[in-house]
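Milestone 3.1: sequence recovery, worked example.
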């Protein structure tokens, strides 16, 4: 049973499913595959389809017939390969069901791996019954496999080698025969070598191998490669010939040069992207870029070419039309990944499709074809394949399976070509020419006499509403006369009388050199006023406006239909911009006051064009959301005090006429939204209301911003003094309480807080988040444009730029965070990648969504924007140092980042085997350590190990480390009772210098000190500098303190030595002598000791002096005996 479900419907197009639901196997593959999976689909016109994922091939029938069973899905195993299998290398051969195979019950399958292994299944339901053959390709890679006849296919490699593969239809004796087409490489190779030089090791740009309709003697075959179209005729294996070969590069360059306004064909670079056939007509899809343009945007065009039945080589393009597709930069990876699909040969529709969009073209052979883009990037959706069935175009969507896209010709916005191409005169020119004929008697210049102030030259209507004084300030009748004169010059240019136009402008403005480079000069005011009056002009042909038209008015539109009025105004505004450039005043423009700030006149002209585009988008939405928009229009008119509508007119007529105030609709819609939400709507109605408001605002502002980006070069000035250094705030990003930026932020918050919270199903939530993503895009794009302008005007180091960047950074995270909170990870990633919100990207990768490997990808992608340092700092700030060193130790950026972080840098040095640097870093850390002896000891020990592991000689460093470890040993040997008295932690003492340790060992607080303590104090002297009196004084003090540890007056007896040998002083001396100290160097003489201030109280004690000298005499004898 066939089932059709509408996926998306607008007044311009309808996307719906086609055929039955997908088999369960296919659905499981799509659900389980991640974003990076290589999935491709082929939709055969027989009703069979195949899907390739890795080495798995799935075959099913997407179109139900009486004979074929629906729901069955066959899975086959493809040959092993190190490359990626693609559906382009699969050929489905229906068996039974007539010539077309549309009713076939079974299908044969021919598959080729990228390396050239051919595998043929006579019937898809027997997986193990296949024959296989390997082709000798000499390292070439297979490009495409094209059905050619009933049981034959043409295999093309990336180096343009062609092979005919024939299969036997018999299931009992299946055979695969291969025949190499003899001239497949010769002619193309010769032409390629002639044009581009020898390219032996490179693959050429093979685009399409296309089989023509069968003829009596065989089949034609067309090959599109680089800029060459080649036609073959093949009667059978070994019976092939090249009919002709045509270099198309020049034909396309000539057309694109005219479209792009390039000065030379040499500046045009052309790519031929795809080809399809309609009888003997080839329809070719091409792209081109003007290499001399600063912003190299690719334009896409469709051309037709007669491919004659005989041997005549094509000589010209029969038709050529530029497609209205969003502009893409030439360095965009997917800019040229586009394909052409003709579903119904000879019909009015064709399709340009890529992975993420389908552009529908209606009226391909009309003078003014229409184009409508349908996007497929929502929620990870993409186009995986395309085909046609029974004259209908079908596509395979990752999210919805087989779908169709149907367009409405009457509703689709037209891609209007220049009238000069069609040979017609625009309504603007017709209207102005009529006005010129009415005013033939008034062609004298009115700027030489005061009587000219009667305004005889007013050729366009002026608004009767109050002038917008924020844009233009009247500076007198002279300025008014200059505006009228500029209108007349514009009229002459529309009549193609450029001499009169240039002479009039020369008289008006080119003499006023003193005003150039100033804000609100007469030239800038005249241009700005003329532009505003044009976009706010009255529809003169509409009889309902007859009473409202100013005298002598000529409208810029002759249409009675509102949408066409706006389109005519857009064309008129384009004429105005061209006129300003042609008469040589474009680069003389500087700036005017807009929203209380100076803005370049070029940007104001762009703003007027953008508002026309926005008005057209609003008009297209008016039918679908008539109630909401009508109420908002009335509210906006009340605020303007224009609610008194003239008889016969509607508020809609009044509002759309004054395009310069188009931004009022956004505030009016949001106020209406707030009023309705306050009335107590149900949750379902709340979601519907907010979603509708989002759709309207998003469509209006996106259309304006798209025009701003796509036509930025048109409104660019090449004069450095033209005011380009002025800060620029796009009107869709205007700030302040009533600015569009604040309103969009409020709508963003309202959507998250009221709509998402009340959405009951996944589809509603998905739609709301898609709208949120678009609103976020608009907000952040506006910030970026303002930042770029501020950088040029104020400089990157200015306070203004810094403040704006800070607001942007805060707003960016605030806007993207809701996607993360509601687990919309794909959308959050898209926005964070686009706007470089590194915090969001790291959170995404840490959120457990299987994205941790993406951190490495982002580090490479944003290597020049400091992403690596951001990630490293992120982990350090959160104390996750282990994760930092575990996951990123292999990255060279980490070593550089950790240079200021010595406490982690040495670990990276160890990991990279840089032991010398590690020991140096560890020693520095140990030197800086003052709070923990244990930590210092660990650092020194690790430093010693690093020095020992290094291939360099570090004996000196190891000696210094050993000395420091020895000092730490003296820390550890401090008496426990002394440590307690000092209230220190015995398990982790603070780091002290050798002198501080000496002071502790000999201090009075060390009440239980003995010869060991004083000996340790003497040992610590070796770590002090011996030069100077300080060292000597400290050494003497050690011995004096040892003397003071005993009571010398109590030492009595016949032999003094028997008593003094047990004193701390002489025990210390004996201990020192025993352990190898040179007493002649470290023991002061008695006189020095007696004179020291420590023994001041014992200088007059003759008994002490006697005993001391006696002891020294005994020591001297002992030393002499030892020698």
């Amino acid at each position: 049973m066939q089932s059709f479900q509408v996926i998306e419907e607008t007044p311009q197009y309808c996307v719906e499913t086609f055929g039955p639901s997908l088999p369960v196997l296919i659905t499981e593959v799509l659900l389980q595959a991640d974003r990076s999976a290589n999935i491709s689909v082929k939709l055969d016109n027989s009703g069979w389809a195949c899907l390739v994922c890795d080495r798995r091939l799935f075959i099913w029938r997407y179109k139900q017939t009486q004979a074929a069973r629906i729901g069955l899905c066959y899975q086959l195993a493809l040959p092993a390969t190190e490359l990626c299998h693609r559906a382009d290398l699969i050929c489905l051969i229906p068996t039974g069901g007539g010539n077309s195979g549309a009713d076939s019950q079974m299908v044969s399958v021919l598959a080729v791996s990228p390396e050239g292994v051919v595998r043929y299944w006579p019937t898809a339901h027997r997986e193990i019954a296949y024959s296989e053959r390997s082709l000798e390709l000499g390292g070439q890679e297979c490009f495409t496999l094209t059905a050619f006849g009933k049981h034959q296919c043409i295999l093309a490699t990336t180096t343009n080698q062609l092979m005919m593969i024939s299969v036997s239809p018999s299931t009992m004796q299946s055979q695969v025969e291969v025949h190499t087409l003899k001239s497949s490489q010769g002619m193309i190779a010769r032409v390629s070598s002639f044009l581009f030089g020898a390219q032996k090791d490179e693959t050429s740009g093979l685009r399409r191998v296309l089989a023509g309709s069968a003829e009596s003697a065989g089949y034609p075959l067309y090959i599109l490669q680089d800029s060459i179209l080649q036609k073959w005729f093949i009667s059978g294996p070994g019976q092939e010939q090249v009919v002709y070969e045509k270099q198309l590069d020049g034909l396309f360059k000539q057309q694109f040069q005219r479209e792009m306004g390039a000065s030379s064909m040499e500046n045009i670079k052309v790519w031929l992207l795809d080809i399809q056939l309609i009888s003997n007509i080839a329809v070719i899809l091409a792209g081109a870029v003007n290499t001399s343009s600063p912003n190299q945007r690719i334009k896409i065009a469709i051309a037709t070419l007669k491919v004659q039945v005989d041997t005549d080589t094509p000589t010209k393009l029969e038709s050529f039309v530029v497609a209205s597709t969003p502009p893409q930069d030439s360095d965009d990876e997917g800019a040229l990944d586009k394909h052409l699909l003709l579903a119904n040969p000879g019909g009015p529709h064709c399709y340009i499709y890529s992975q993420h969009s389908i552009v529908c073209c209606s009226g391909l052979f009309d003078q003014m074809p229409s184009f409508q883009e349908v996007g497929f990037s929502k929620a990870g959706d993409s186009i995986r394949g395309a085909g046609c069935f029974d004259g209908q175009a079908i596509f395979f969507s990752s999210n919805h399976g087989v779908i169709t896209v149907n367009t409405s010709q009457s509703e689709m916005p037209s891609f209007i070509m220049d009238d000069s191409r069609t040979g017609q005169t625009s309504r603007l020119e017709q209207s102005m020419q009529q006005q010129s004929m009415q005013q033939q008697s008034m062609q004298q210049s009115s700027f030489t006499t005061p009587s000219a102030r009667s305004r005889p030259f007013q050729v366009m209507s002026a608004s009767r509403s109050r002038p917008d004084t924020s844009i233009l300030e009247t500076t007198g009748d002279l300025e008014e006369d200059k505006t009228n004169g500029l209108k007349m010059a514009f009229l002459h240019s529309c009549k193609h009388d450029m001499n009169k136009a240039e002479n009039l402008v020369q008289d008006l403005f080119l003499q006023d050199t003193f005003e150039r480079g100033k804000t609100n000069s007469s030239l800038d005011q005249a241009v700005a006023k003329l532009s505003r009056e044009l976009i706010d002009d009255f529809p003169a042909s509409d009889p309902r406006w007859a009473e409202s038209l100013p005298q002598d008015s000529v409208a810029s539109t002759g249409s009675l239909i509102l949408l066409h009025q706006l389109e005519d105004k857009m064309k008129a505004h384009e004429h105005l911009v061209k006129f300003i450039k042609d008469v040589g005043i474009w680069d003389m423009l500087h700036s005017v006051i807009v929203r209380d700030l100076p803005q370049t006149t070029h940007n104001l002209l762009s703003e007027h064009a953008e508002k026309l585009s926005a008005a057209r988008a609003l008009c297209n939405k008016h039918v679908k959301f008539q109630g909401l928009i009508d109420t908002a229009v009335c509210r906006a008119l009340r605020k303007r005090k224009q609610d008194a509508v003239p008889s016969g007119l509607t508020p809609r007529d009044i509002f759309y006429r004054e395009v310069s105030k188009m931004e009022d609709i956004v505030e009016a819609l949001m106020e209406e939204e707030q009023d309705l939400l306050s009335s107590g709507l149900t949750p379902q109605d709340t979601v519907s209301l907010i979603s509708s408001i989002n759709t309207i605002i998003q469509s209006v502002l996106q259309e304006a911003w798209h025009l701003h980006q796509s036509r930025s070069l048109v409104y660019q000035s090449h004069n450095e003094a033209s005011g380009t250094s002025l800060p620029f705030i796009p009107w869709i990003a205007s700030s302040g309480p009533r600015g569009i930026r604040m309103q969009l932020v409020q709508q963003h918050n309202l959507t998250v807080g009221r709509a998402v919270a009340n959405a009951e199903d996944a589809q509603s939530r998905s739609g709301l988040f898609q709208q949120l993503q678009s609103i976020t895009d608009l907000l952040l794009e506006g910030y970026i444009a303002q930042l770029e302008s501020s950088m040029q005007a104020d400089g990157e180091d200015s306070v203004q730029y810094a403040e704006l960047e800070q607001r942007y950074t805060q707003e960016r995270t605030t806007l993207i965070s809701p996607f993360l909170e509601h687990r919309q990870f794909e959308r959050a990633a898209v926005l964070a990648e686009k706007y470089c919100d590194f915090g969001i990207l790291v959170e995404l990768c840490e959120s457990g969504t299987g994205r941790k490997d993406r951190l490495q990808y982002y580090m490479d992608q944003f290597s020049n924007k400091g992403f690596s340092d951001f990630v490293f700092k992120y982990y350090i700030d959160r104390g996750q140092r282990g994760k930092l060193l575990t996951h990123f130790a292999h990255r060279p950026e980490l070593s550089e980042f950790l240079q200021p972080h010595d406490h982690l840098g040495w670990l990276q040095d160890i990991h990279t085997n840089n032991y010398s640097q590690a020991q140096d870093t560890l020693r520095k850390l140990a030197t800086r350590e003052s709070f923990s002896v244990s930590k210092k000891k660990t650092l020194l020990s690790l430093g010693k190990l690093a020095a020992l592991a290094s291939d360099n000689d570090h004996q000196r460093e190891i000696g210094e480390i050993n000395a420091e470890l020895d000092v730490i040993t003296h820390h550890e040997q401090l008496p426990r009772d002394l440590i307690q008295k000092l209230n220190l932690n015995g398990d982790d003492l603070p780091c002290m210098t050798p002198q501080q340790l000496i002071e502790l060992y000999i201090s009075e607080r060390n009440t239980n000190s003995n010869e060991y303590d004083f000996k340790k104090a003497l040992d610590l002297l070796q770590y002090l500098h011996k030069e100077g009196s300080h060292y000597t004084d400290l050494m003497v003090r050690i011995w004096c303190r040892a003397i003071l540890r005993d009571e010398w007056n109590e030492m009595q007896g016949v032999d003094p030595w028997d008593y003094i040998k047990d004193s701390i002083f002489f025990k210390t001396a004996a201990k020192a002598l025993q352990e190898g100290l040179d007493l002649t160097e470290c023991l002061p003489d008695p006189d020095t000791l007696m004179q020291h201030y420590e023994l001041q109280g014992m200088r007059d004690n003759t008994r002490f002096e006697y005993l001391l000298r006696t002891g020294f005499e005994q020591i001297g004898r002992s030393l002499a005996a030892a020698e």
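The chain has a mean pLDDT of 80. The first helix runs from residue 24 to 32.
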